[in-house]
Fold this sequence. Notes:
The protein is an alpha/beta fold.
Amino acid sequence: MSLLTLSSVGMRYxxxxxxxxxSLDVAAGEFVCLVGASGSGKSTLLSLxxxxxxxxxxxxxxxxxxxxxxxxDRGLVFQSGAVxxxxxxxxxVGFGLELLKLSKAERRERVDWYxxxxxxxxxxxxxxxxxxxxxxxxxxxxxxxxxxxxxxLLDEPFGALDVQTKEDMQVFIRRIWQDTGTTVLMxxxxxxxxxxxxxxxxxxxxxxxxxxxxxxxxxxxxRELTVKRTPAFLAxxxxxxxxxxxxxxxxxxxxxxxx
Length: 259
């Protein structure tokens, strides 16, 4: 049964169509990655699911309830992390809990658990300026997860990190997903990252953004970075890259023909 349902979702800005007829179902506990070339509307789609903007057509529902605005049932993490600079790590992680009906003891217990789960316990009293980029992203992810949302929405969360830190964070988010069972929908431009992280990879075509392919990732659930060197991984990565390239080029050709 689907937890998140998008039914013929479209988004227009005046005469420009950013998204057209997007239909997608995400089951509880899935890890789904969205990939596509620039102009495919990946971040726009995530914004609609988060309730930050409203689609001009179609409908989005979470657990059967229409999405009409932001809510604690959806946690959102951007590329920048957007942690609060004058709050400590622990205070950042507990920020969203201040809006929930929890006792101080319950808030403290939940903050402690997510600090431990994300490897931040020793940094709990530090300010963001004292952290590395990867550590700040861990704080942002821990803060989003602490409210225990139905869906965690990740918008290019590792795009600004160096290669080594990025791969460390990929292993980290897979482990967090397995430990918590949280449903994850992640936008990335990195096909290798999408194949490593996702159980499904959804390819969006460009101009306008629309679902071009929905591919199952047939790889072991317990993945280490070494899986990236296996024939199965390389073949699947090539398949996704071919889809992204094909639909990007076909969109460019269509646009040129209409100009």
